[in-house]
Design a protein that fits this description.
Blueprint lengths: L3 H6 L2 H13 L2 H8 L3 H15 L4 E4 L2 E4 L1 H25 L9 E6 L1 H18 L4 E6 L4 H9 L5 E5 L7 E10 L1 E6 L10 H6 L1 E5 L8 H7 L6 E6 L2 H9 L5 E4 H11 L1 E4 L8 E8 L6 H17 L2
Parallel strand pairs: 3-4, 3-5, 8-9
Antiparallel strand pairs: 1-2, 5-12, 6-12, 7-10, 7-11
Length: 309
Amino acid sequence: MLNKTNLARIDLNLLVLFETVFEERHVARAAMRLHVSPSAVSHGLGRLRRLMNDPLFLRQPKGVVPTERAKLLATPVADILERARQVMANAEGFDPRKSVRRFVVGAPDAVTAVILPSLLAELRRDAPGINLGVRNLVGQFETALSQLDERLLDVALLPIEGVPARFVTRTLFEHEDFVIVRRAGHPIGKRLTLARYCAAPHLVVSVSGDPHGMVDTHLAKRGLSRRVMLTVSNFMQALAVVAESDLVAAMPRLFAARYAARYRVVMSEPPIQLTSAPILAIAPQVATMDGGLNWLLGLLERSAKASRR
């Protein structure tokens, strides 16, 4: 990426600045995160532009957007910084009791809602300075892998199989499938037949608002269809709506089992076979040399195990 002449003219802080602006897409927010002034960020970007012979970031009304050259540089710059951080982490040793790091985890909210209570309890007890950011990734599995590559996420928790070799995985739950959820006393009755299921009004969890989901794919194979009356962007909202309406919804079994009593909803086995997959914690292979990230993966495993008790 950089030749020997350029290496003599650059310092690591410029790469940190590049990474931060790339992630924030905003000079002022990057400055706040780096604890410097916006003018210092602009000055550093000027130096980088001269070194890279490219504008790198173009101003827009709501911030900046990376050029194609900047997008190509993002991954190698992240790798360089990750290795530098690993050197420092290995030299100092990661101590969760003293660390004030912030980790970003991406997952469907149905997954985080299951493990967060146990995870937060351990953080409060053993790592009081650690902070977490959680991003909802319902149906955005390919996006999640790209965000891991770009270091926008530290770990992704996904119901997915066939993870590319550039990632390391830990199994949180061996098996996760779906159940059908409806309010207690729903007019559909206790016996959920396929005909009654198709005739009921449905709710689908979809970040994009697309009403077509995995259930529709399975029904179409049988020449059947359903009416999707409502889409919402997360499972917790879906559960609250189902509890106070005549809508029915397919939801992950572990999530529904944990919150069914609280929301007074009823779970049934689906009248057709739906998708099943393990829940994996996924991180870039190169990042696992980071003691802090390895600790986080272990924490997620322990939290998943505790949530099953």
